[in-house]
Design a protein that fits this description.
This protein folds into 2 domains: about 200 residues, 3-Layer(aba) Sandwich (Rossmann fold); about 60 residues, Winged helix-like DNA-binding domain superfamily/Winged helix DNA-binding domain (Arc Repressor Mutant, subunit A, Orthogonal Bundle). It is built from 14 helices and 8 strands. β7, α9 and β8 form a beta-alpha-beta unit. The longest helix is centred in the last third of the chain and has 15 residues. The protein is globular, with a radius of gyration of 20 Å. One of its GO terms (molecular function) is hydrolase activity.
C-alpha cells in the first residue's frame, strides 16, 4: 500500500495533514499523543499495523496541530481544539457514517466526537484509552514526567518510551524515542501530554450511541486496565477485549492480536497483511535460532524462562507459515543478507 497525503484547514485555522491508504468503507484513526505521518510509515511494525487495519477498506489518519506534517498549534491544546481538527478531516470522509478509532489520548477525543455527533459514527473502537487523565498516574509522577519533557526532551522521550514499549529491545526503544523527538518540539510535547492528564470524558460516555469495542492490554503501563473497564461500563453495551501484554503502543508486541478483534468488530475479514512481520522480540529469538540455540539457551540469553522461549518459537512458526527451526534460521539468514544486520 502507498499512502496519499493531503492537507485541510480547520475552522480555528490549524493546518492539518492527513494520510489515506486503501479504498472502501472509511475508518478514521485518531492517534495518541504524538505522530508523524511520514516517519511512522517508515517504521516496519507501525506501517504493518496500519496496513492490516486498512486491508479491505480506507484508513485515514492525521497529525494533530504541532505534530508531524501539520502546522503549529494556534493556541493552547484543548478538547475543543482536538474536535475542531477532527471535524476538518471528517468532512473529507463523505456524507455516510464512518468507523472511528482512537488510541491512547485519541480514544478520549473519539468518545467526545461520537457523543457530540452520533449520526456520523457507524462503529467506535477505543484502544489503550482512559476516562479520567487524573487517574492514570499520581500527581508526583505526572509532574516529574512533564518536567522532564519540558527541561530535557531527550531524557523525557526515553522515559516515556520505556513506559509505552517496555518489552521492546533497546534498539527499538531508541528508535521510538527519536521518533517522538522528530514528531514535535519539547514545548508542544509537554503541552499535549499535560492535556492528556487533564482530559476527563466521564460525562460523555452515556451519550455514545455507536456500537463500541474497547481493546486494552492487561498490563498496559501507561493506561491502567481499570480505566478500560470504566470506558466499557460507561458506554452502553460496549464490548471489552483484554489482551496480554504491557505495551501501550498498539503496533508494539503482538500487533496482530490487536488487529484481529478490531477487524471482526468492523465486519472485515481476517487480515493476512503483516502476518509475516515479526515483533522485535521475535526477531531476537529468530536470530538466536539461526545461531543454533536451543530453547533453554535462548531463555538464558534473553533473561526469560524456557517456556516463554518455546512460545516465541512457536509463534514465529505460525507468523511465518513455516514448520521447523531450520526454516526459521533460513528465513532469518535471507532477511539478514537482504537488509543487513537486524538490530
Amino acid at each position: 500500500m502507498q499512502q496519499r497525503i493531503a492537507r485541510v484547514t480547520s475552522t480555528a485555522g490549524s493546518e492539518v495533514a492527513y494520510a489515506s491508504i486503501g479504498a472502501g468503507r472509511p475508518l478514521l484513526y485518531v492517534s495518541g499523543w504524538l505522530s508523524h505521518l511520514e516517519l511512522s510509515w517508515e517504521l516496519p511494525e507501525e506501517r504493518a499495523f496500519y496496513e492490516s487495519l486498512a486491508e479491505g477498506g480506507l484508513l485515514v489518519r492525521y497529525d494533530r496541530a504541532g505534530c508531524g506534517l501539520s502546522g503549529p498549534l494556534t493556541g493552547p491544546p484543548s478538547m475543543a481544539h482536538e474536535l475542531d481538527q477532527l471535524a476538518a478531516v471528517a468532512e473529507k470522509m463523505g456524507p455516510e457514517p464512518f468507523d472511528l478509532m482512537g488510541t491512547s489520548m485519541g480514544a478520549l477525543v473519539a468518545v467526545a466526537w461520537a457523543a457530540a455527533h452520533p449520526g456520523t459514527v457507524r462503529r467506535l473502537v477505543l484502544y489503550g484509552g482512559w476516562v479520567s487523565g487524573a487517574e492514570i498516574s499520581t500527581p508526583e509522577v505526572r509532574d516529574h514526567i512533564l518536567g522532564l519533557v519540558e527541561s530535557h526532551w531527550g531524557l523525557g522521550s526515553d522515559v516515556l518510551t520505556d513506559i509505552f514499549a517496555p518489552d521492546a529491545p533497546a534498539a527499538t526503544r531508541a528508535r521510538l524515542a527519536l521518533y517522538q523527538r522528530a514528531s514535535s518540539s519539547a514545548a508542544t510535547a509537554r503541552a499535549l501530554l499535560a492535556l492528556s492528564y487533564d482530559l476527563d470524558i466521564g460525562d460523555r460516555l452515556a451519550q455514545v450511541r455507536a456500537p463500541t469495542l474497547v481493546v486494552h492490554r492487561a498490563q498496559d503501563r501507561a493506561a491502567p486496565l481499570d480505566q478500560a473497564d470504566a470506558l466499557a461500563t460507561g458506554i452502553h453495551d460496549a464490548r471489552l477485549v483484554v489482551l496480554p501484554g504491557r505495551s501501550h503502543l498498539p503496533y508494539e508486541g503482538d500487533a496482530q492480536a490487536v488487529v484481529a478483534p478490531i477487524r471482526r468488530f468492523l465486519g472485515l475479514r481476517a487480515s493476512r497483511r503483516g502476518a509475516g512481520v515479526l515483533t522485535a522480540r521475535q526477531r531476537e529469538v529468530a536470530a538466536l535460532v539461526s545461531e543454533g540455540c536451543t530453547n533453554r539457551e535462548i531463555a538464558a540469553r534473553l533473561g526469560i524462562d524456557e517456556r516463554s522461549a518455546e512460545g516465541h518459537v512457536e509463534r514465529i512458526r505460525q507468523r511465518l507459515g513455516i514448520r521447523s527451526r531450520a526454516q526459521i534460521a533460513a528465513w532469518y539468514t535471507g532477511q539478514h543478507e537482504r537488509s543487513g544486520p537486524v538490530k
